[in-house]
Amino acid sequence: MGFVVIGLSHKTAPLELREKLAAEGEKGARLLKALVEAQGVTEGMLISTCNRVEAYLVAREVSEAAAGVRAVLGRESSAVAAELEKSLYVKNSGEAVAHVFRVTASLDSMVVGETQISAQVKEAFAQAVQAETVGAGLNKLIHRALHVSKRVRTETGIGQQPVSISYAAVLLAEKIFGDLSGTKVLLIGAGEMGALAARHLMERKAGEIRITNRTGEKAEVLAKELGASHVPYDGFAERLDEVDIVIASTAAEGYVLAEKDVREAMRRRRNRPMFFIDISVPRKIDPAVHELENVYLYDVDHLQGIVDANRKEREKEAKRAEAIVVEEAQNFLTYIQQMDLSPTIQQLSKKFEAIREGEIQKHLSKLPASEREAVEACTKAIVNKILHDPILLMKTEEVKEGAPKYSEILRKLFRLESDE
Amino acid sequence: MILSLNVVAAVLYFFATLGHCLYLIFSDRRMGRLAVGLFLVGALLHTGLLVAQVLQNPYPFFLSDGDFFYCAAWASAVAYFLALRKYRMIGLSTVFSLVVLVLFILAEIRKRHFYLGAGASENPWALIHILFMSLAFAVFSASFLIGLVYLLQQSQLKGRHPGALLSRLPSLEATDAMHYRALTVGFVLLSIGILAGAALSKTTEGRFFRGDSKQVMALVTWALYALFLNVRLKAGWRGRRGIILSILGFAGVVLAFLTLEHRVM
Fold first, then answer.
1. CB distance B172–A272 less than 8 Å?
2. Which residues contact A188 (CB under 8 A, 6 or more apart)?
3. Of A1, A73, A119, A247, which is the most buried if we count CB atoms within 10 A?
4. Does A186 have pLDDT greater than 50?
5. CA distances for A396 relative to A350, A383, A403, A410, angstroms
6. Across the beta sheet with A52-59, what order do the strands follow?
7. Residue B37 CA to chain centroid, in angstroms?
């Protein structure tokens, strides 16, 4: 028995190929069923996301299973065999375990440290459980993988820093104001980037969102969509002191907010902090406002700089996470080996056989051949009958759960040498 | 016995503070939890020792610098848990852990008596004076460090290089509010402490103000903090400018508490 991973990901296959293999819903269920019916496969689950299509299997014989699964994938997808052959990877035993851990801990993701993948693995596992294609092996593997993913999140800072511009802006707002529920946001312009940032702010429960735009209609449409209020463009700067966060994403000409406007607003709001996000190019807020006390202005380049720095930080943290994965994979393999009682069973049978043979040799060596054969058959039957029930019991799931303990007791009781 | 247990508590506080700092650097949450655990054990021991000391030495309790800092360190330990409960941020607790450690060590190395004049130790005003001054000292120490945390965060945000450290500290507004609240509380405690000191002076020497350097320094500090609270309220001196002013106030606190002594009567 061994773990096998067969699949392709954003690292080996272009989007077009991943699309052809993508298997969700009914198609996924059908493919999963075909996979576990392949030659040599005993358990299986299928994970299909926009970045990867992978089958996690328990197989009796790796090469046999790999060939079987390849055939199934070729048959079930519209992909060309040659294309598939180039992009598919097969990993087994230790490599497979480490890979599953790495994927679940988001170390193999396109955006390292993103949080979706472990939920996707959990979901794929739940589907496989429902389809009754998992047994003890995959059950242990996936539970351990989720544990490793949690450990990586706890012990490293891998997912802590944002790696997208609009999300970085939202986190900066939280860094300044803390809880956003008491803040008011003004969106200048009805551009896409600005709307995205406003949406992020709403997800974070920003108190109120106002939208202003040169052409009123566009702003009104967006306001309706976002559940925001619409503020007339003329003279919006005069009410600037009422808002805490300003997002500028407009194509208007020149600066829409001058240093003087912001200075006035700050005076009216008694220096309570303000945060300006200028995602327009060219910039629409006078850069000099950043010099004012308690005013923070970030433009696209500043936000991009933060995102780049965070990416580097994630890569550094990923190295620490990698060490955790390697350690956990090794521990898991040792654990699985201990779970396997078959070497102990073999040794036990061998020992009984040796005793039987030795005794016959000692006491009955002078018997005529015909009688001896009868005695041999009889003693063999006795040994087999004695061993039958214990061996049967050792193959039950209940005993397998406590395998290391049973193995130790048997070794002590019957003085089985561990290196036999 | 109590002395050696004090060393144990100091060691616990030391490793707890070290753990907090390591958490800030490596963001390993296990390390953070361990640090909080160590701090909790240290604080429980500290509480037990404080109670034992008060029981062993019936009124007056606080007669030396050592006792003063011991009490201040304990007040900061309580503040540590209050802050942890409210903000659930181990990064912020690092500040309090550091204050506790420094005050606790000061308590151990400064065990000489106060120069309060004959009869002062039997005077209830002495207890009130020292108790409130020690609480004020603890609160001002914490507010000073919170102020530094604010300046650090503010300079990172102004410099547009917010590091990973920021994610382990509360927001700028929360830090500012906490700093303001701590100063308000500290100011009230300091005012009561100064008034009690004046009353003590009146009962022992017949006049409210003796004009020694420590009294002068305490009044200067009080005036600086009063100024801070005032400009913040009236002129909207929030953030950096106000905090720099309060840091000047803390310099006054340190000078008054550590370097100058009440004149021996």
1. no
2. A194, A212, A213, A236, A246, A247, A248, A249, A250, A256, A257, A284
3. A247
4. yes
5. 21, 21, 10, 16
6. A41-48, A52-59, A2-9, A89-92
7. 22
Contacts of A313 in chain B (CB under 8 A): 164
In our burial notation (b when 16+ CB lie closer than 10 A, e otherwise), range A311-326 reads eebbeebbeebbebbe
Look up residue B164 and give its DSSP letter.
G
Beta bridge partners of A188: A212, A248
Q: Give SS3 for B161.
A: coil
- Report the catalytic residues of A: 50
Amino acid in the structure at residue B78: V
Beta pairing class for A89-92 and A2-9: antiparallel
Rounded Cα distance between A39 and A69, Å, is: 8
Cβ separation A298–B171 shorter than 8 A: no
User: In this complex, is the C-beta atom of B156 within 8 Å of any C-beta atom belonging to chain A?
Assistant: no
CB hemisphere CA count around A144 (13 angstroms): 24
- According to the model, what pLDDT value does residue A146 have? 95
Q: With contact defined as beta carbons under 8 Å apart, do B203 and B121 qualify? A: no
Closest residue of chain B to A274, computed from CA coordinates: B173
Of A273, A293, A302, the CB nearest to B172: A273
Q: Give the closest-approach CA distance of B186 to chain A in angstroms.
A: 23
Q: Mutate one of B157, B168, B245 to test the A interface: name it (highest A CB count within 10 A).
A: B157
The rounded distance, in Å, linking the Cα atoms of A313 and A107 is: 13
Q: What is the DSSP letter of A277?
A: E
| Interface contact flag, A176 B172, Cβ < 8 Å | yes
Interacting residues of A139 by C-beta distance below 8 A, sequence separation 6+: none
| Window B:214-253, CB contacts with A under 8 Å | 236-241
Contact B29 A154 (CB under 8 A): yes
- Please give the distance of CA A191 from its chain centroid, rounded to a whole number: 33
- DSSP E strand stretches across A22-100: 41-48, 52-59, 89-92
Look at residue A420 in the predicted model and tell me its pLDDT.
Answer: 41
**Assembly ipTM:** 0.80
Name the percent of chain A lying above pLDDT 90: 35
Which of B222, B195, B198 shows the shortest CA–CA distance to B209?
A: B198
- What is B100-146 written as a DSSP string? HHHHHHHHHH--PBP---TTGGG-HHHHHHHHHHHHHHHHHHHHHHH
Q: In this structure, what are the phi and psi dihedrals at residue A280, rounded to the nearest 5 degrees?
A: -95, 145
Tell whether B29 is within 8 A of chain A (Cβ).
yes
Chain A residues touching residue B27 (CB < 8 angstroms): 156-157, 160
Which residues in chain A touch residue B160, judged by CB atoms under 8 angstroms apart?
298, 302, 305-306
Of the partner residues B27, B157, B240, the one whose CB lies closest to the CB of residue A157: B27
**pLDDT per position as a tens digit, A217-265:** 888 888 888 888 888 888 888 889 999 999 998 888 889 999 999 999 9
B172 Cβ under 8 Å from any chain A Cβ: yes
A270 contacts in chain B (CB < 8 Å): 236, 238
The dihedral built from the CA positions of residue B58, B63, B64 and B68, taken in this order, carries a sign that is positive
* Positive/negative CA dihedral, A98, A100, A102, A105: negative
Nearest-CA distance A266 → chain B (Å): 10
Q: Coil, helix or strand for A293?
A: coil
Residues of B in contact with A161 (CB under 8 A): 164, 167
Does A302 contact B160 at a Cβ distance shorter than 8 Å?
Answer: yes
Tens of pLDDT along A134-143? Answer: 988 899 999 9
What gap in Å lies between CA A369 and CA B31, rounded to an integer?
A: 74
Instruction: Determine if the pTM surpasses 0.90.
Output: no
